[in-house]
Every structure is written in C-alpha cells, then in structure tokens.
C-alpha cells in the first residue's frame, strides 16, 4: 500500500511539473550592458562616447520587471551654443545609479496562438529615477580651464525589445535586450554652462544580456509556446 501511494505521488509530481512547462520563469537576474552615448547640451558637436554597466533585475512577472543598475561612461561636446568663442569643449566622466520599472507588451494582451502577438509581446517601455556622479572638465583651446565634481538627479526613459532564450523546460534563462534610452538631467550645468531654457540630457543606444539566477515561480499563462 505504501509503495502504491508513493508511486502515485511520484506520478502526480511528474504531471504537475509537466503542466508547468512553459509557465515557469526566474524572478532574479544579473545582467551586463554596453552602450553608445550622444550628448544633448549647450554644445553643438555630439561626439560618440561609450558606457558599460551592470544590472540586477527582479521579475514581478515575466513582463513586469524592476531593475537596479550601475553604469560608467563619459560625455563630450565641442562648439558651444553661446556668444563665447567656439574653441570651448567639455568632457564629463560619470557613474550613474538608477532604478527603473519596465512594462512589456506581453502583460497587456493574450498572445497565444498568434505569431504576430508572440513577436509583439517583448516590446517594452521603462522609466525611473537615478543619480549621476560626475567629474567635469572644461577646456579652452585644448587647455583645461576648469574642473569640478558633483551629482545630479536624472530621469531615464527607455524603449526597447527583449529577445528571450529558453532552456529545455521552456523557461527563459537568457535575455538579449536592445534599447534606446533618454536620460533627462535635472540640471542645465552638466556641461559646465547654463544657457537656454532646457536642461541637459543625453541619449544611449544599448545592448544588454541578462542571466536567470534563481527564484523560479510560475506565471498565469505560457511564456513560450
């Protein structure tokens, strides 16, 4: 009798596990990003610069994500938009710490049995708040004329698409993230000058990889089909 009950429990466990295939996902992820920055400040020339970072993600669902991230990068500009001579330039090395919430389209509609809906489900919008810690250098005719360190609040707003890769249990274990992010700085002095009526900002094209690290749970509908 005990053997029969034990066998039934094993069968039920196997059936339950099989029923969850395609529904399970990891709540926690670690990721890495690389991006190309473009400055939008009081300087006309928009030099391309680079940024790199790390990310920790909590997945409330597969399509509602909360992210804490750290980035290190730089911004440069030449030819200032004022009456000053155009031989002024700046370089600002920064470290940013930000928190974002991300909503993917798959949370909003039923994508099952629809190849088109299945492709759309991974588009996302994201927003949050962060702090930029900066080391600003201003140059006059190639010579360093001023240097200062400080911090500024910024608002990250991001659009993107996430490619999900699945393991043998149809659980997403790796994600490739392609995104375009506007970082609106709550200051007009990020470049060392205050001019005009708009605050400084910069945009970033980024590529990221996120890896599932545990906390497996189930979603209300199949993630993979």
From TrEMBL:
Signal peptide start-end: 1-19
InterPro entries associated with the record: OMP/PagP_B-barrel
Record key words, sorted: Signal
Highest rank taxon of the organism: Bacteria
Name of the protein described by the UniProt record: Outer membrane beta-barrel protein
Classification lineage: Bacteria, Pseudomonadati, Bacteroidota, Sphingobacteriia, Sphingobacteriales
């Amino acid at each position: 009798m005990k053997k029969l009950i034990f066998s039934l429990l094993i069968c039920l466990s196997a059936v339950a596990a099989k029923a969850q295939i395609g529904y399970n996902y990891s709540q926690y992820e670690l990721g890495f990003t690389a991006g190309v920055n473009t400055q939008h400040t009081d300087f006309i020339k928009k030099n391309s610069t680079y940024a790199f970072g790390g990310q920790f993600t909590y997945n409330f669902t597969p399509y509602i994500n909360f992210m804490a991230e750290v980035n290190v990068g730089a911004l440069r500009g030449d030819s200032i938009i004022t009456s000053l001579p155009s031989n002024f330039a700046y370089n600002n090395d920064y470290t940013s710490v930000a928190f974002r919430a991300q909503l993917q389209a798959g949370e909003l509609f039923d994508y099952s049995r629809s190849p088109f809906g299945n492709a759309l489900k991974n588009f996302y919008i994201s927003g949050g708040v962060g702090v930029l810690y900066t080391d600003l250098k201003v140059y006059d005719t190639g010579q360093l004329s001023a240097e200062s360190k400080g911090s500024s609040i910024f608002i990250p707003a991001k659009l993107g698409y996430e490619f999900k890769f699945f393991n043998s249990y149809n659980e997403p274990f790796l994600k490739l993230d392609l995104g375009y992010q506007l970082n609106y700085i709550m200051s007009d002095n990020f470049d060392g000058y205050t001019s005009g009526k708009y605050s400084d900002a910069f945009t970033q094209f980024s590529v990221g990889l996120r890896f599932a690290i545990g906390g497996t749970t189930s979603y209300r509908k199949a993630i993979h089909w």
